[in-house]
């Protein structure tokens, strides 16, 4: 059906212009009911989109700044792979102090989502100690030596409490700041995992101690290598994971 489905948000709903940053999805600036919004069209399952839209609604009710799903005219939060969300204005972080505010916001996300169910079809980093596949991860496609290194990094996280992680918070394009709030957008990679994976930020702005930062940065590099395998970026990330 494609973008024709946008009509479910009203007769005046219109796609305005494509937005940069979409890889797995087609992301556009749209106008719905007279206001600017963002439309994301992809191939995620209804169960996956129900998980994400429920998460965003929960975080919004708790007072965090996130893209809020805008219902269709008949009250649905998505339709035929399309989600329409509020536009979040702001600028990306520039200083260590800015990234410190991002860390505080991420820790609030983690606090608010302890015990949250896993995103349908996804695996956490510690799940991948025992299974080979989950969403975009296929450890069977990686070199055996690389898998061993990744699993050694993830094993250091075993037994820790889990929550929802954003999944890509150090990407400048995913943070929208103003003087009084931090907005996090693009929750397409969010899932349940160990929170420290979200806290490997520029200049160690989350103030992890040396041991915690080493564990988190190794596990994060291993995750990025596995989830993106095998492009140039994933090869570079795997090179950061120590040999065992």
TrEMBL record:
InterPro entries: Aminoglycoside_PTrfase (IPR002575), Kinase-like_dom_sf (IPR011009). It comes from the Bacteria. Pfam families: APH (PF01636). Residues 16-200 form the Aminoglycoside phosphotransferase domain. This is Aminoglycoside phosphotransferase domain-containing protein.
